[in-house]
Amino acid sequence: MRNARVLVVLFFLATSSTAVAATKAVKFGKLIDGTGRTFSNAVVIVEDDRIQSVASGNVAIPSGAEVIDLSRYTGVPGLIDGHTHITYYWDGVSIPRYEPPRHSAVVAFLAQENAQRALEAGVTTIRNMNSPDGTDLAMRDLINMGKMIGPRMFVSGLGIRITRSTAPPTPIGIMADGADAVTHAVRQVLASGADWVKMYGSTGGFDDVTEAQTFTFEEMKAAVDATHALGKKIAIHSYGPGGARDAVRAGTDSLEHATDMDDQTIAEMVKRKTYYAPTIDHNQYYVENADTVYHFPPGSKERLLDYIQRNFETARKAFRAGVHMIVGSDAVYNGWGLNMRELDWFVKMGMTPEQALRTATTEPATMLGMEKSLGAVTPGFYADLVAVEGDPLVNITAVSRRENIRWVMKAGRVVVDKTKR
Question: What is the C-alpha to C-alpha distance for residues 234 and 218, in angstroms, rounded to an integer?
Fold first, then answer.
């Protein structure tokens, strides 16, 4: 019943007037702007969906502006999750991945719950990496139209996989073998309207932590070249070192998950400015829910815990070498709302809280080609603002824990307000 009420409210919000009060003045006790500056007693003037000005102290408020007083909170830019699966919806009853088939329109409607949980975690932008039947494209467009409430979405549509025998459930994706078939698959994905291409360069996912390389270097290079020829970017999934090595050599724009990478591959990532989403925490919530939600087979938790440790050590090595790191939650099913827990791992590996915050703001914004619009609170950028309890420059949990997110604005519109609780 609660879920039904949530969906009714979301539907009402999404289908009601999308008008935004023209001018707002948002006050924070402290503002971390994402560019390395902090403001005490900050005032952010928002005009429609953009930031007009940022200043401290006694600032002239435009006549007729709506004043939003968040002086007891710290302000940060809207957060960006660089690797998600928003259409992986869980009904709370079935075993995830084994739920009854649903029409794509039903999935898009139900996935609004995932979208809302992302916003409640302070996430105003996501990059979605694999979805069936164009469902993530539909959600992206509905959100952009103001007909659905959710984070701004950059999507890949169907991921590209090799043809292989596999146990149920059947993997989502376009099957392609050989350079010519891969090139055709890339063109199919981009013709569908996708923003990015997603390619599966190795086995691995959920309780499967195998690392077997799937596509060859020549196939990956064909995918990268076809993607770049059409002015788009590609992300390559590889749980293991072989697929990661060839993905980086082939020129992937971002590398997902990779573990056990050697020093040469990491050095090549630094040279090529390859973005890296290690997605450490998603395996942690698999461990936490292995028995009660996912019903993984015996031995899965032990294998996952071993993989987590190797994943963490690889990511720490990459960070120390200077690789561009981004937060990627790999959120599926009940992982929504935990999107920023990855930041805890980043601080644990040696990042300062400020460095960690950049992996969820300016770094992914640049990866997305949106460095002049997202990831910072500065004039001309989208008015994506988050008010948090505490100071993330002192303790990163101020942004990594959903309970500390008190208020969220996306493109000038308040989409979460828990300040009165």
Answer: 15
